Every structure is written in C-alpha cells, then in structure tokens.
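During the no-cost extension, the postdoctoral fellow (Dr. R.K.) reprocessed legacy sequence entries with the updated structure-token encoder. One reprocessed record is reproduced below for audit purposes.
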Amino acid sequence: MRLKYYALICLFLISCSDSGNPKIKSSNQKGKVVVVKDGDTIEILTSTNETITIRLTEIDCPEKRQAFGQKAKQFTSDFCFGKFVEIIGNKKDRYGRTLAFVFDEDGNNLNEALVRNGLAWQYVAHSKSEMLKKLEKEARDANLGLWIDENPIPPWEFRKSRKNNQIKIL
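Re-encoded structure tokens follow.
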C-alpha cells in the first residue's frame, strides 16, 4: 500500500515538474512557415488559416542590419521556409508574438541549430538552458558564424546602442 502511495506521489511530481525539455513543455501547434522576418522571427499558417508570428524563444539572432543578421535570416529560411513545423510554447512577448521552440518534421530544433552554427546567442536574460549554453560555447570555441569576430556585439546591446545612436548601421 505504501509503495503504491509513493509511486502515485512520484508520478504526480514528475508530471508537474519542468524538466527543461522544450518538447514536453507548454502547448504545441503545427503550421507551414509562410514568412521569415529575420533570424529569430517567423510566421506560420495553421490548418485553420490562422497566421501566428513566432519569436524563437531563449535565443537572440543578430539584427538584419547587424553583422551576420542576413546569414541568420537565410539559415532560418533554409531550415523552415515553406515547410511544416511544430512550435512548442504559448507565452507572448510584449509585441504579441508567440515565444516558442520550432521543430522541423524530423524533430530538429531551429533554436538550437542557430546557436550551434554561431548565428545566435543564448538570450541569457530569458534562458537557463544548459544545452544552449553548451552549444554557444562550442560555436564560440570553433569560431563559427558570428564568433569569427573577436568581439561580436550581442543584438540586445546593438538595439540599445542604436536607440542612443552610438552604432552606425551597416
């Protein structure tokens, strides 16, 4: 009897816990990618003809007018434009975009792929992912993508500096 009681408690706790695996968190939807706005923002068309703007969660790609911004956009386009994807996430940002992880039909994670290829930073202000941390370090150590530059400017600093007119646009 005690064993059953403990087993039920364990199952309950496991089902309530956040394991950090985006594949089992929150809600998910599927749709076809119809727009790639930049490296970390896409639009999908769902089966109900609803267009949803997706902001890739926990990462930040260079801005379009920043070094490697166009490469990040092209990578995202090659990964998913015109293809069906699954999005995992249901929170919204201040612009009304859905914050999500994006997976292709083979289960490949776009968020991770961008970081792995040196085309995005882990957005540490909004991420505690050990996997993204590891992928960023590996890309940095291998001088991949934006890490070929000695001191790449993170997009959040680029945006802040542009507001203050401190950085010239490419």
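Residues 19 and 25 are 8 Å apart (CA to CA). The first strand starts at residue 28 and ends at 38. The remaining legacy entries will be reprocessed before the final report is submitted.
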